[in-house]
Amino acid sequence: MYSDMDEKKINIEQSEAELNREQVEEEQKSVKVQETGENEQEPVAVQEAKESEEKPVEVQAAKENEQKPVGTKETENTRCYYWEAPVENQPPQKKKKEKGAFRKVLLAICCGLCFGLFAGVGLFVVDKVTDWYQLSREEVYETNSEEPVISKVEDKKEQTIQLADKNQVTVVTSDYSDVVEQVMPAMVSIVNTYVERINYWGQTFEEESQSSGSGIIIAETDKELLIATNNHVVEDAEKLEVTFIDGSVVEAQIKGRDVDMDLAVITISLSKLPKEVKESIAIAKMGDSDALKLGEPVIAIGNALGYGQSVTGGYVSALNREIGLSDGSKGTFIQTDAAINQGNSGGALLNVNGEVIGINSNKIGGSMVEGMGYAIPISAAEPIIGELMNKEIKLKAESSGYIGIENPITVPDDLVEYYNFPKGVFIRSVGEDTPAEKAGILNNDIIVKFDGTKITTFEELQEELTYYGPGSEVVITIMRQVEGEYVEKEITLTLGKRPDAQ
């Protein structure tokens, strides 16, 4: 006999068996539908009708609501299933507002406002402090009537510093236009036309060339106008042309040259000067280069690059600067940061009073460095210029005189530097029955001066000979080796006529 408990257990097992059978049937039907769906697709309405007829009411309701059972509950004879309520029957849920982007924008705006506020306050404070500092610098401090008063005067165009007492005011300014206007009539441009000789495969070719430089009008006599410049500006000149402030061009002649100091004086006959030129020019005023101080402002005027007169300014960078020259000698110069370019050579270096304190020379510094120009101190140049002014005008002779030396050469620089040879023209041999032999010149002598003009190359000796014709008496300075040392000796010689001259 079965008990009540056994009967209940049997009923439950039968219900589970029946439910499992229904689930198996459902799976078989779904497999059949999948197999036949690709080839024979029935209308959707027909398929749904068939499925509704075959499925139990509970499963059909779950299909319609697209829900699955979420749980079961067993009783004594039955098992109950639970489904979630359909979506349309559930109460609507409130969507969460997306506040992330808005919060970021709001935070960025707040940060920008804070930064602007602090930046504005900082700028305001800096501005106030700067104004206070400037006002404190502009205050005038007075002690008593004997002590100086220091004040700062500000103008819209320029700033100056005044050192003053009750009776005198000295103003330091950077505007030198009045000074330049005053001295410019004393400045000239010089063009040198010369013949350049080129040796090529044993043959000599000649070509006419030009170079430019500057000059300073230093004196005027009853007969001539005298102009100071550099020696290298006028050397080898076949023709010299001087351009004045009004643009007039007049030919000039060499009065005298000093190779050692790189100085020269050229002259122009007053009879060649037009009346307009005489009225427009002025004589430069010489200054004192020994009174210069470091940092003193200076002005350089010259025919830079041959384009015409130009003005540059700077300061005295160094005094008594010793510089080695190309011929092995040394000189003492004024160093300045005022631009001194090609064409400025021979021009004036002026102080703020318009006085000439130096003669510019681009040959000394060259273009190796920037901001370093050199000038010959006028205190050292003035005595030499005075001597050159008193020399006779050197004119080209119709035919050059003849010394009588054979195969002369320029002493190489390495012999001068390492073996202490004199810089000049080495005489290999002296011709028989020539002016040189008659005057006492010997083989291996070195010519260093010709009639007072320094000679460092054979080309310079040839250039000097063009001013002396046959029969001219000259003084030749030579260096002769005596007991292992070179001794200076002066020899007077009368030039002869060249053997090849007709």
CATH topology of the largest domain: Thrombin, subunit H
**Structural class designation:** alpha+beta
Parts with pLDDT < 50 across at least 5 consecutive residues: 37-46, 52-68, 138-172
Q: What fraction strand? A: 25-35%
Count of structural domains:
6
Helix content: 25-40%
Shape: elongated
CATH architecture name of the largest domain: Beta Barrel
Write the CATH homologous superfamily of the largest domain.
Answer: Trypsin-like serine proteases
Question: What kind of sheet is the major sheet?
Answer: 6 strands, antiparallel, barrel
Q: If you average the pLDDT, what whole number results?
A: 77
Radius of gyration: 54 Å
Distance between the termini: 174 Å
Total strands = 25
Q: What is the count of helical runs? A: 12
Q: What is the CATH C-level name of the largest domain?
A: Mainly Beta
As laid out across the biggest beta sheet, the strand order is 6-7-8-11-10-9
Question: Could you walk me through the main structural features you see in this protein, from its secondary elements to its overall organization?
Answer:
The chain is α+β, with helices and mostly antiparallel strands. It folds into six domains: about 5-90, no CATH class; about 100-135; about 140-175, no CATH class; about 180-280, Beta Barrel (Thrombin, subunit H); about 290-390, Thrombin, subunit H (Beta Barrel), CATH 2.40.10.10; about 405-495, PDZ domain (Pdz3 Domain), CATH 2.30.42. The protein contains twelve helices and 25 strands. It has helices at about 5-35, 45-55, 55-65, 100-135, 175-185, 230-235, 275-280, 360-365, 380-390, 415-420, 435-440, 460-465, and strands spanning about 70-75, 80-85, 150-155, 160-165, 170, 185-200, 205-220, 225-230, 235-245, 250-260, 265-270, 295-300, 310-325, 330-335, 350, 355-360, 375, 405, 410, 425, 430, 445-450, 455, 475-480, 485-495. A hairpin with a 4-residue loop joins strand 3 and strand 4 (about 160-165). Residues about 35-45, about 50-70 and about 140-170 have low confidence and may be disordered.
